[in-house]
Every structure is written in structure tokens, then in C-alpha cells.
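Hi there, hope your week has been kind to you so far. For a while now I've been wondering how a particular protein folds. I'm sending you its amino acid sequence along with the C-alpha cells. Could you read through the record and tell me how the C-alpha cells relate to the sequence? Take your time with it, there's no hurry, and the full record follows here.
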Amino acid sequence: MANKKNKATITISILIIVITSNISYSQNSDLANWTTIGLEYKLNKKWDFGLEEQLRLKENISTIDEYFTQFNTEYSVSKNFTLGAGLRYIKENDNEGNIQGYENHFRFNADVSYKHKINDFTLKYRLRYQNKNELGISSSEGDYANQHIRFKTSVGYNIKGWKLDPEFSAEIFNHFEKGEDNGYDKYRLTFGTEYKFKNSGKINLFYRIEKELNQSIPKTTNIIGLKYTYTINNK
């Protein structure tokens, strides 16, 4: 029991240290919160389906940034290789400029993922194509698809006899859009952990740094995230 308490203290302490040592309060930084509740359905060994609702807060967790509904699916080609796709309907809060209010956006993505283990480490790699567009505005009105190629790599460590295994990930975004500057525009670094309940899903807690690239004054966003997923397993 004491050993488990020590492991819990270490995991939580690392997360708190990472958050407090990296949160910046400069003029061009922000503190955000992402809260998610989801439902996962494991049809069989090959197919997984998911539905989730997420709320994102910005401006030091004082204002709604956006909220969305997302549907996603994954197909396991093999034990290590997975294909995925997702659809997202977004209500985005535009509170800058002369015209403000909630905008309707639609986003879809396609993923290719691979994972493998080295001793107690699990390594994952994901390549994603993402396409986002505002609904109700055509290209003739100046609205073009906001597209990204994203590459994410992560490493998790299995602590024997302990459920809160730590995971670290890094992701780079390559942006391309007609009429805009294209190229690498931001990256994300994430440290988190996950706890699985025996019969009622799992909960994820993470801290993320998101920083703009190729800007004269790049913005840094510090994100604290919490996600609960209920799983229905038909395997």
C-alpha cells in the first residue's frame, strides 16, 4: 500500500512540476482548459467507434474558445498498425474584430498509426491529414480549406503494479491553405497519465504546451486537459 502511495505521489508530483515550471504569463501567452466526455464502442478486434463532446476555454480559462461534437473510428490492420478517421462539428467563438460571435466549422481527418514496445516502453507514431472549413461561406467569398499535415510521436512507460503510467508526446503541424503563408505553424508537447476503471471506462489528465512557429511574436498556450471515456466492449 505504501509503495502504491509513493508511486501516486511521484506521478502527480511530476505532472504538477511540469505544469508549474512551464506555465508562462507573458503578454502573448494564455492558459486554456480542455474538458471532454466520450463514449467508446469496441465492436470487435478490428473496429472501434467513438463519440465525444469537448469544451475548450481560453483567456486564462475565463472565456469559451469552442465546443464540438466528434465522431471517430479506427480499424486495426494488425496488432501494431491502425487506420483511423474522424468528423467534427465545431462551434467556434470569434471574440475579436468587428464581427464577433459563434461560427460553425466542420473538420475531418484521416490517420495512419503505428505502435510497438521496447521492454516497458510503448512507442507510438501517428500521421494525420486534417481539413477544416467554415460552414456557410464559399471559396468565392474568400474562405478556403484550412489544411494540416500533422506528425505525432509518443512514448509511454509501464510502471509495474501501478495504473497511472506516464506518457510524453510531441507533435508538429504543417499548414497549407490558399492565400495564406504555408509551412510549419505550431507544435505541441504533452505530458499526461491515464487511469482505467474496471467496468466504467477511463480518465485522462494531461498538461500541454502549444507554441506558434514562424511568427514575429509567437503565442504560447498552456493547456490543462481532463477527459473521461466510457467504454462498451463487444470483443
In short: The mean pLDDT is 88. The longest helix spans residues 2-22. The domain at 2-233 is CATH 2.40.160 (Porin). The first strand starts at residue 29 and ends at 42.
